[in-house]
Design brief:
Order of helices and strands: HHHHHHH
Largest sheet: none
Strand content: under 5%
Helix content: over 70%
Distance between the termini: 16 Å
Mean pLDDT: 89
Length: 142
């Protein structure tokens, strides 16, 4: 994966958000919500991908090693995304990096709702928040 990929993905998320009215089939809340769900999803993955590349380059993160390690130590059900968040919280020397891992956790929670929980509405505010959090993570780690 190119190290530019996360920035390209975040730019795509921003473009989708900026063009939300032309991308929706009509201006109903449902079709705009589809766009907001997509923005939340893509901006999360941009931030996650960037944080993963950063952890690999700066903290010697090896996903497979720590995935197996944390499954034994912490929780057999831990996923790969939680593995990265836990790794950053444990290995980062700066408190600000641990705070960024917490921001990623927040964005991931919103992304999970956007992808799987259709009973809960994803709003324009959620999309903006996701873009803002992802930008802050990526800018700080750049």
């Amino acid at each position: 994966m190119s190290t530019n990929y996360p920035f390209q993905l975040q730019e795509l998320s921003k473009n989708i958000y900026d063009d939300r009215y032309s991308l929706s089939c009509n201006e109903s809340a449902c079709s705009l919500e589809c766009v907001y769900r997509t923005v939340v999803n893509r901006s999360y993955y941009a931030a996650y991908s960037h944080a993963k590349i950063w952890a690999e380059n700066h903290l010697n993160f090896d996903e497979n090693i720590y995935f197996k390690k944390y499954r034994k130590e912490i929780n057999n059900n831990i996923g790969r995304h939680q593995t990265l968040f836990t790794f950053i919280r444990r290995k980062a020397k700066e408190e600000s990096h641990r705070i960024l891992a917490n921001k990623l956790q927040i964005i991931k929670s919103l992304r999970t709702i956007a992808d799987y929980d259709f009973e809960n509405e994803i709003t324009e505010k959620d999309a903006r928040s996701s873009l803002r959090f992802a930008n802050s993570v990526m800018t700080y780690l750049n």
